[in-house]
Amino acid sequence: MCGLLGSFSQHPEPAFDKCLRAALHSLGNRGPDDHGLVAFKVAGGQLALGHTRLSIIDLSSRGHQPMSSTDGRYYIVFNGEIYNYRELRQELKSLGHAFHTDSDTEVLLEAWSKWGLSGLRRLTGMFAFAVYDRHVHTLTLIRDAFGIKPLFYQQDSEGFCFASEISALLLLLPRKPGLNLQRAYDYLVFGSYDNGADTFYEGIHHLPPGHWLTIDLQTLHIEGPQRWWWPSIDERADLSFDDAAAQLREMFLENIRLHLRSDVPLGAALSGGVDSSAVVCAIRHLQPEMPIHTFTFVAPGTAVDEERWADIVTAHVGAQAHRVVVDPSDLARDLDDMIRAQGEPFCSTSIYAQYRVFKAAREAGVIVTLDGQGADESLAGYSGYPLAYLRSLVDCRQYVRVPFFLHAWSRWPGRNRRQALLILASLMTPAQLRSIGLRALGRDPAPCWLDQEWLDEQSLPVAPEPPEPSPECSGRRLMEQMRLALTGSGLSALLRHGDRNSMRWSVESRVPFLTCDVVEFLLTLPESYLLSPNAQTKRIFRAAMRGIVPDSILNRRDKIGFETPEYDWLRCQGEQIQDWLSAAEELPILNASASMQEISNILTGQQPFSPQVWRLINYCRWAQLSL
Predict the structure, then answer these.
(1) Are 536 and 415 in contact (CB under 8 A)?
(2) Does 463 have pLDDT greater than 90?
(3) In this predicted model, which residue has the larger pLDDT, 459 or 353?
(4) Measured torsion, CA atoms of residues 333, 357, 143, 77, in degrees rounded to the nearest 10
(5) What is the per-residue DSSP string for 386-414?
(6) How is the chain split into domains, by residue range?
(7) Strands 138-143 and 211-216: what pairing?
(8) CA separation for the pair 365, 505 (Å, rounded)
(9) How confident is residue 55, by pLDDT bands cut at 50, 70 and 90?
(10) Residues 6 or more apart whose Cβ sits within 8 Å of residue 390
(11) Are strands 125-133 and 320-325 parallel, antiparallel or unpaired?
(12) Superfamily classification of domain 2-227
């Protein structure tokens, strides 16, 4: 895993080289083993490409980047892993390509030289990379299908720059951009972030998952961003449930086999849920003698503790278990470091549990971890996306099944009849009445702790509009919703958390559920294969893993994940919270006194607990550290 950056300027400043080296240094945690920087004269300006390396495959100096193709036409900086690089290498050798290293970077570069954009679908991996074509003076940026690896960019009339992290990109800019207050509003009020191209800074953008863009360095004209991957959700009818489960089992095991390729020690993040447990048990199924290290956040004595479930898995596979226990004072100690690592505000203190898990992995000498991320979005997990599933029933005029499904859904742990009735109400509520519905649920789009006068002056939208259902997706609303979640509206934030937390400790986090072939397969199955008529989530995967994962895990009815006792943690912070919120006085979007009162009322029990407490704290402290 690595860090990358690049900058093109038509009129480079005298400090151009100094800024590049400072930006490269800021990516040190992403690549502590090596770094490189090359520069080119292009169209009267200057292009520089930089790279920091965390050595995972081919630990020798031959994997140094930026790397050039054999003919010298292309230069690449690459962050990620191509898990099927050995197979691609053999194919390219048969086509006449010569190789001088054992690295996946060289395979990627030669694949680009041979196939260009059309070769992206051949890759099994996670990646963000940039390729400079010296013949036509273009720079192309590409991001993997799910956005597992990050890539930010900024363009103005003088040039173009990109980097793996915003902190590095900011060092390449002549001046720091202002805050994106629409993004701030969406985050503070609705918890919405990382679901589009915009960041919390004006003018700095994500390259969206599954997209590419090309900039002509002679004209600064950008083509894109354009999609290179968009999975079909057309239903196939040629597989029985049992046959589909058997095929999924083989595909998943093959994914695990590929994701185990590494020249450094591996381990696994284990929550005790179905997804991470399946990863750990599949490793043991494929590698009976391999030492397995697992890393689990535990919260003894709380409702979110999963230690007993994780213990079942570690005993089943004979793993060496590492448990992470957090004291509330630890959060105050590490908050600033975690905020800087994340680069932008995030949803909850569960991200701190993950931060500590990756720290524990590094301290144990484990450089690569496998994780269950992405399974919920591809297997109808969480609570099963019930609203989308009900819309499928309505599309198919199966109205009688609606109340039966909702009744079954409400009987699972963590759900109830009131929630089922709210889902039914949402199903029947036109989009135009969304703001009224949000207020009825206590989610006021204009809460008192916002600066109302300022909001009125800015004319910011007060409620994000949900995407309109596509007519061509009739009867496949569950698959449509999961496709949206997988390609940028839901999963992106979770992948960002994992990438930044793991890279803070120079650990590579791999997510074997997220490969194009597995996701494409799942999204074309009948919806009932994923979400059963009695509202059981991940139905087909539970069937596929029988005999590999203990039945007690597969039969779990609850879901916790890396949840934390957030309310208890925050109540212990005392005066520290006042310090964290002090930046509210300087932020135009907030009413500082009302914000403090809101948090005080919640933490003293005068109002129900709300995730907005953390969002206010996080945004204020992030702004304090960033401005």
Answers:
(1) no
(2) no
(3) 353
(4) 80
(5) HHHHHHHHHHTT-TTHHHHHHHHHHTSTT
(6) 2-227, 573-626
(7) antiparallel
(8) 11
(9) confident
(10) 402, 405, 406, 423, 424, 427
(11) unpaired
(12) Aminohydrolase, N-terminal nucleophile (Ntn) domain (3.60.20.10)
Tokens of 406: 């909702």
What tokens does 122 get? 């051949």
Burial classification of residue 138, based on how many CB atoms lie within 10 Å of its CB (0-12 exposed, 13-18 middle, 19 or more buried): middle
Q: In what order do the strands lie in the sheet with 67-68?
A: 67-68, 74-82, 125-133, 138-143, 211-216, 221-227
Which of 160, 139, 156 is closest to 7 using CA atoms? 160
Q: Is the pLDDT of residue 442 over 60?
A: no
The residue among 128, 87, 80, 138 whose CA lies nearest residue 111 is 87
In the structure encoding, which two tokens stand for residue 291, read together?
């030492």
Element (H, E) at 129: strand 125-133
Output the six-digit token pair for 582.
Answer: 């002090």
Read off the pLDDT of residues 489-503 as tens digits, 9 standing for 90 and up. 889 999 999 999 999
Q: Residue 74: phi, psi to the nearest 5? A: -110, 140
Neighbours of 94 (CB within 10 A): 8
* Chain-centre distance for alpha carbon 58: 26
Q: How far is CA 258 from CA 2, 177, 284, 367, in A?
A: 19, 41, 14, 17
> Measuring CA to CA, which residue among 483, 445, 441 is closest to residue 462?
445
Closest CA to 178 of 462, 588, 617: 588
282: three-class secondary structure by DSSP: helix
Phi-psi group of 63: left, alpha or beta (phi > 0 → left; psi -120 to 50 → alpha; rest → beta)? alpha
The pTM (predicted TM-score) of the whole model is: 0.94
For residue 379, what is the DSSP state?
T
Q: Report the run of H or E that residue 153 belongs to, with start and end.
A: strand 152-156
Burial class (CB in 10 A: 0-12, 13-18, 19+), 219: exposed
pLDDT at 384 over 90: yes
The answer to whether 369 and 352 are in contact (CB under 8 A) is: no
Q: What is the mean pLDDT of residues 387-401?
A: 94
Q: CA 331 to CA 324: how far, in whole Å?
A: 13
Q: Quick one: which H or E segment has residue 19?
A: helix 16-26
Query: How does residue 141 score in pLDDT terms, banded at 50, 70 and 90?
Result: very high
Q: Is the dihedral angle over the CA atoms 93, 99, 104, 109 positive or is it negative?
A: negative
Are the beta carbons of 5 and 23 closer than 8 angstroms?
yes
d(CA 242, CA 98) in angstroms, rounded, equals 44
Taking the C-alpha atoms of residue 449 and residue 120, their distance in angstroms, rounded to an integer, is: 47
d(CA 159, CA 157): 6
Query: Rounded CA gap, 151 and 163, in Å?
Result: 6
Per-state percent for the chain, helix, strand, coil, to nearest 5? 45, 15, 40
* Closest by Cα among 129, 203, 172, 130 to 25: 172
